[in-house]
Structure formats: C-alpha cells, structure tokens
Design brief:
Blueprint: H1 2-16, H2 27-35, E1 44-48, E2 54-57, E3 60-61, H3 70-81, E4 87-88, H4 89-97, H5 102-122, E5 131-133, E6 138-141, E7 147-150, H6 151-164, H7 168-181, H8 194-220, H9 224-237, H10 241-253, H11 257-274, H12 281-294, H13 301-308, H14 322-339, H15 361-378
Parallel strand pairs: 1-7
Antiparallel strand pairs: 1-2, 2-3, 4-6, 5-6
Helix pairs in contact: 1-3, 3-5, 4-5, 6-7, 6-8, 7-8, 8-9, 9-10, 10-11, 10-12, 11-12
C-alpha cells in the first residue's frame, strides 16, 4: 500500500506541478508547439518522456491530466514505454496496486484499461483499441491505425547512428543532434519508481557516452568554442567534476584565462560550502596550468605591476585558496631558512559544544566564515610599498605591522 501511495503522489506531481505537467500546458509551451507544427506528421503521435511527459497529436498537445486519474496516467506511461515487448499483468498489478488484494486489483485494472481507451479518444486521438491483452497475460500498447514516435527510441537510434559513423564531421553532426534530443532526466517526477530509475540511468549513461565522444572529436578538431555550450548544458543537469574539467579545458584553449580562474574559484567555493570537500589533484593540477598560462599573456611591465597591486580597500590578514597558500608557504619556508628564523603553521579544528567535529556542511561553513572574519580582523599585515599608509579611523582600526 505504501508503494501505491508513492505512485499516486508522483503522478499527481505530473498533473499538478511543473512546466511540462499534463492537463495544464503553459502558454510558452503552446507557443513552442505552435512553432513546430509544420514539422509534425498529422498521422503520428509524438510522445516525450525525456525531461518530462507529454503527448502531441496533429500539432496539438493532448490535455490528458483533466481526464485521467493518477493510476491511469501511470498505466499509460508503462504501456507506452514497454510497447515493443509488452508488460506482464503481474508486473502491472505490482506497479499500480502494490500488495493490494490480487483479485480486487485485477478487476480494477480491467476497468481502468476500459476507461483509459475511452479517455484517449475523448482527448483527441482517433478511435482505436490502443491497449490489447494476450492469453499469456501480457498487455501491450497497440495503435495500428496511427504511428507513434517515442523520444527515447529516437534518442537511442540517433546515438547508435552517431557511434557507427566513420566520417568525423558527420559523426559530430549526429552527436550534436543526439544532445539536442536529450532534454534531461527520464520522467523526472517519477524518479522514485524502480523502473523509471533504471531507465533514467540507462539514458543518462548514453548521454554521457555521446558527450565524451563529442568532446573527443571537437577537441581533436580544435573546436573548443563549439564544445563549451554542450559542456555547460551538461553541467546545468549534472554538475560533475568530469564536465567541470572539460569546461576549464575549453576556457583555457580559448585563452579565456580570467574566466577559467573565476570558474575554478566558484567550484572551490561551492564544493566547500555544500559538501565540505577539497578539489581533486587533477582539478588542482589543471588550475596550476591555467595560472602558468596567464603569465604568458602579460605583455608589458605596467600590466604586470597593475596585476600585482594589492586591493587598497582590503585590510587585515590575507585570504587565499589552498594552491596559492602552498606556493606562499614554500616561499616563506625558503626565506626563513636563509635568515634562520622560525615560523608556525596553525590548523584549526572546528568542534561543536560537545567537542565533536562539525559534520553539518551548512553549520560548518557558517562557523568557518565566522572564524575567517575573526582572523582577518585580528591579524595585521605589512603595508605594501605601492600603497599609502592607511589613515586611522578611515573604515578600519588596524595599524600597519608585520604578520
């Protein structure tokens, strides 16, 4: 019964929330469909499952949400998705009714299939059976009088055609089209269902396979500017390090070093705040390479001097990322070693009131920021020779001194 409730809530979300919900197509969606009407074959039912669920016939979206119950929509999706081989009656009963009484569930299924046929015709589809059952207890989606185009099938065929193509330029075109077909997760509002989760993983992996091959080919052809939008699209859906590295590589190859550094710093900040983790060695190595490339873009001494000039509005201790700290630390150790001077390295461990390390990423980040502000306010810094000595009382209380 618990599983049945989960199904109902998931389908309810499809009918009552989201931009692609059934039964309430937004004006923007209608305009999008209207623009594409000329591309629709009037004898084909177009069904979308990647990125959301919708059905379009003769250029118009079918408003099924108002006429179909949650279970009827779920039944429709199951039948459409398994239309090639059909689906066992026992599996349908389990998906739709959980552990309810078998006989009662079977009677409800027969009645629901009857109502679903009538509702589909009432929604605008031509007369027909649509669902048939066989003696083997298998239910199938059947629409012999009208063709069906299912986006997951189109996506798979496009991927296979691209990966089998031998000519690089043509392969790139096919891969780009596959990326355009993939609009996100498979039935995202039903992702808690086992069959949906399994299908979603399958199509996600195909999408990643397409992206990796497209990335390889475009890099080989030095077409980084064309690769970047596909990389950013992938990151908007799946902010994984793999695609972050590809984006950094694109920006570096395009000589957008400043943007690359800013993007890396954004990744570091988000990783620390949301997950409390540091960058991988591969990511840090890429950052080092970007910093090394920046120096070759400096063409005159004035530009270099301006780049080195400290911010005159920043006072107190200096804050830097981990890689910069490594360079500074090694330099200081080298200098102090020559002067026979000692220095100390301090590590702060943040604990809760019970003396246990903070585990909540949100609480940890809040306390870390408070500690950082305290250190910046408390530790003095030397005045840079290019800066004027701070005026007492002008927005700060620090006197010049040494770290």
């Amino acid at each position: 019964m618990k599983k049945e409730k989960v199904h109902d809530n998931a389908i309810k979300n499809i009918t009552e929330t989201g931009a692609l919900k059934m039964g309430e197509i937004t004006e923007a969606k209608r305009a999008e469909v209207s623009e594409k009407n000329l591309q629709y074959d009037p004898n084909v039912i177009y069904i979308q499952m990647i990125g959301g669920f919708s059905m379009t016939y003769q250029g118009q979206p079918l408003l099924l949400g108002k006429s179909l119950s949650s279970k009827m929509l779920h039944l429709l999706m199951l039948l459409i998705y398994s239309r090639g081989e059909g689906i066992q009656r026992t599996q349908l009963l389990e998906q739709l009714y959980g552990d309810s009484d078998i006989e009662q569930a079977a009677n409800s299924l027969r009645a629901m299939i009857f109502r679903l046929r009538k509702s589909l015709v009432a929604a605008g589809l031509p007369d027909g059976e649509y669902i048939i059952s066989t003696k083997g207890g298998i239910y199938m989606w059947a629409a012999e009088h009208v063709d069906v185009e299912l986006d997951v099938e189109v996506f798979q065929k496009q991927v296979m055609a691209a990966l089998e193509e031998k000519e690089p330029l043509k392969e790139v075109e096919l891969l780009e089209e596959a990326c355009r077909i993939y609009k996100g997760e498979f039935l995202p509002l039903m992702i808690a269902d086992d069959w949906v989760a399994a299908a979603n993983w399958k199509y996600q992996e195909l999408y990643f396979k397409v992206l990796r091959e497209l990335s390889r080919l475009l890099k080989k052809q030095n077409r980084y500017a064309e690769l970047l939008p596909y990389c950013e699209q992938a990151l908007s859906r799946y902010p994984y390090e793999e695609w972050q590295l590809v984006k950094l590589e694109c920006l570096t190859a395009m000589k957008e070093y400043k943007l690359a550094v800013e993007y890396y710093e954004q990744i570091v900040k988000e990783s620390q705040q949301e997950y409390g983790i540091r960058m991988s060695e591969e990511m840090m190595e890429h950052y080092r390479a970007i910093r090394n490339m920046i120096q070759y873009e400096m063409n005159n001494i004035e530009e270099i001097q301006q780049h080195l000039r400290p911010d005159p509005n920043v006072f107190g201790a200096t804050r830097c990322d981990y890689l910069t700290f490594i360079d500074i630390y090694r330099y200081i150790v080298w200098v102090l070693g020559r002067e026979d001077t000692r220095a100390h390295l301090v590590l702060f461990t943040l604990l809760d009131r019970d003396g246990e390390p903070l585990e909540s990423s949100e609480q940890l980040e809040e306390v870390r920021q408070r500690l950082e502000r305290s250190i910046i306010r408390s530790v003095r810094r030397s005045v840079h020779p290019l800066q004027q000595e701070p005026v007492p009382g002008a927005g700060h209380q620090h006197r010049p001194g040494r770290l």
